[in-house]
């Protein structure tokens, strides 16, 4: 995510930190490169101009030039201004009491509205609500069927009508929602390849008839300035309360994320960061600014861990570590929980200090699959007591998992290294000094990162 702009910022800040003493001249020189980095990221020109002016006004003051670590001070200023640029965090959905909360999604065709409707329904469902999806896109032939499939996957009902008009579908859906005691209704409306009068007339008609409590504009972040321009036009003609940015995981530049709040004045509410239906996150500008500057995002990492890791299982594992009775079943369970947190490269990129070093690094996700296959090919006794696995057993395990004896040997070696690492951490504070040596054999190290 945003690899290009992150790399550019890192180069600029490396130069600034390398200066023995910062002056107004070399600060402005560095900010000129920041300006170029933002423009290359397809950030709106006026947004870049204002951003650089604000940073310059703060950075050339005596607070920076006379500070103990002026390079770090400039980075902090850029971070703070990035947060201001993307606006304050506003991820709340104002749910109504005693009546269904109506949420209308709109945007251009291909922006990811229908998928976002399913993701939003799943997110709202996790908050204890009972959502209803409404298939009001009668323009795209597969839209209704797609929403029905998504609804089945997340166990959320979908209201639809064949060969009907969008406004009629939406009005009838309100009656259905009350009958079903749904407390949130999400309307998936039609889009076009471009903004035209027919599209806006239909959306205005729906808005007038259902009076939605919230309207979210869904846009593809990878289209950069096109996304910002269409958001501005939709807001001028329809008005909306927030933005859902899709495909953010594939956006290497970041132009839409950095421009859209400044141009429209409307907050980014949620971001889509993957194809799976649980890959919709609340948008936090401070965390995003840290990611852009290569500082990681430890808060989001902890939140993902809390969602993925079973506390009861974690307590059992902790006891097994203390008793030195951890087995390969426990190892497999931990790997599966890591997989729930998202793509490994993305998870590693959230770790402070690693975020700016992930570009160009090939994280072999298939290694996890091979590890899982090897462990599942073992008997319960072998998983519990890996030391009994001799040559014949290794050959049987390799054949059963479709891997090689070398793969089996590597897993067993990694498992032993992990157990040693745990003993070191349990036994002494001095053990942290040995971590670097032992980590070379750890499964998220040598075997996973190439």
Please tell me about this protein's structure:
By secondary structure, the chain is α/β, with parallel strands linked by helices. The chain is 56% helix and 9% strand. The chain is built from 21 helices and 8 strands. The protein has helices at 3-18, 24-40, 45-59, 62-65, 70-86, 113-125, 143-154, 166-179, 197-210, 225-237, 255-264, 285-292, 298-308, 311-323, 328-340, 344-349, 366-376, 380-384, 391-401, 405-427, 435-438; strands at residues 101-106, 131-136, 158-159, 184-189, 214-220, 242-246, 268-272, 280-282. The protein has an 8-stranded mixed beta sheet with strand order 3-2-4-1-5-6-7-8, sandwiched between helices. The longest helix has 23 residues, at 405-427. It is flat, with a radius of gyration of 26 Å.
Could you report the average pLDDT, rounded to the nearest whole number? 82
Q: Which strands sit side by side, in order, in the main sheet?
A: 3-2-4-1-5-6-7-8
Portion of residues in helices? 55-70%
Q: So what's the overall shape?
A: flat
Protein structure class: alpha/beta
In N-to-C order, the SSE pattern is: HHHHHEHEHEHEHEHEHEEHHHHHHHHHH
Q: State the separation between the terminal residues, measured CA to CA.
A: 19 Å
Number of helices: 21
Low-pLDDT windows of residues: 428-450
Number of strands: 8
Layout of helices and strands:
Layout: H1 3-18, H2 24-40, H3 45-59, H4 62-65, H5 70-86, E1 101-106, H6 113-125, E2 131-136, H7 143-154, E3 158-159, H8 166-179, E4 184-189, H9 197-210, E5 214-220, H10 225-237, E6 242-246, H11 255-264, E7 268-272, E8 280-282, H12 285-292, H13 298-308, H14 311-323, H15 328-340, H16 344-349, H17 366-376, H18 380-384, H19 391-401, H20 405-427, H21 435-438
Parallel strand pairs: 1-4, 1-5, 2-3, 2-4, 5-6, 6-7
Antiparallel strand pairs: 7-8
Helix pairs in contact: 1-2, 1-5, 2-3, 3-5, 5-12, 6-7, 8-9, 10-11, 15-17, 17-19, 19-20
């Amino acid at each position: 995510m945003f690899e290009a702009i992150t790399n550019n910022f890192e180069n600029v800040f490396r130069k600034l930190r390398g200066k023995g003493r910062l002056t107004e001249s070399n600060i402005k020189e560095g900010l000129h490169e920041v300006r170029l980095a933002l423009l290359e990221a397809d950030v709106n020109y006026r947004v870049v101009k204002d951003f650089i002016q604000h940073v310059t006004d703060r950075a050339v003051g005596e607070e920076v030039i006379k500070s103990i670590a002026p390079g770090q001070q400039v980075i902090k200023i850029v971070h703070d201004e990035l947060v201001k640029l993307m606006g304050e965090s506003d991820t709340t959905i104002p749910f109504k009491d005693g009546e269904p909360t109506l949420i209308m999604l709109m945007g251009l065709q291909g922006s990811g509205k229908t998928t976002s409707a399913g993701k939003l329904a799943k997110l709202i469902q996790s908050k204890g609500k009972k959502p209803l999806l409404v298939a009001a896109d009668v323009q795209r032939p597969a839209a209704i069927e797609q929403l029905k499939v998504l609804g089945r996957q997340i166990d959320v009902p979908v209201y639809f009508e064949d060969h009907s008009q969008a406004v009629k579908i939406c009005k009838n859906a309100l009656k259905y929602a009350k009958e079903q005691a749904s407390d949130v209704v999400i309307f998936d409306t039609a889009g076009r390849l471009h903004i035209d009068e027919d599209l806006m007339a239909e959306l205005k008609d729906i808005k007038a008839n259902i009076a939605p409590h919230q309207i979210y504009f869904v846009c593809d972040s990878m289209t950069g300035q096109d996304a910002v321009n269409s958001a501005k036009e939709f807001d001028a003609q329809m008005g909306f309360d927030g933005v859902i940015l899709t495909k953010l995981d594939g956006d290497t530049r970041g132009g839409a994320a950095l421009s859209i709040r400044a141009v429209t004045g409307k907050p980014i509410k949620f971001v889509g960061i993957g194809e799976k239906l649980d890959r919709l996150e609340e948008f936090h500008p401070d965390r995003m600014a840290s990611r852009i500057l290569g500082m990681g995002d430890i808060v989001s990492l902890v939140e993902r861990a809390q969602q993925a890791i079973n506390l009861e299982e974690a307590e059992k594992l902790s006891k097994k570590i203390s008793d030195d009775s951890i087995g390969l079943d426990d190892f497999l369970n931990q790997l599966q929980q890591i997989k729930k947190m998202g793509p490994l490269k993305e998870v590693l990129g959230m770790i402070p200090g690693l975020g700016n070093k992930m570009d160009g690094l090939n994280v072999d996700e298939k290694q996890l699959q091979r590890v899982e296959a090897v462990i599942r090919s073992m008997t319960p006794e072998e998983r519990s007591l890996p030391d009994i696995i001799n040559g014949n057993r290794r050959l049987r395990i390799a054949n059963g998992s479709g891997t090689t004896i070398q793969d089996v040997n590597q897993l067993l070696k990694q498992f032993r290294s992990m157990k040693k690492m745990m003993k070191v951490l349990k036994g002494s504070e001095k053990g942290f000094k040995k971590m670097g040596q032992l980590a070379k054999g750890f499964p998220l190290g040598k075997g996973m990162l190439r």
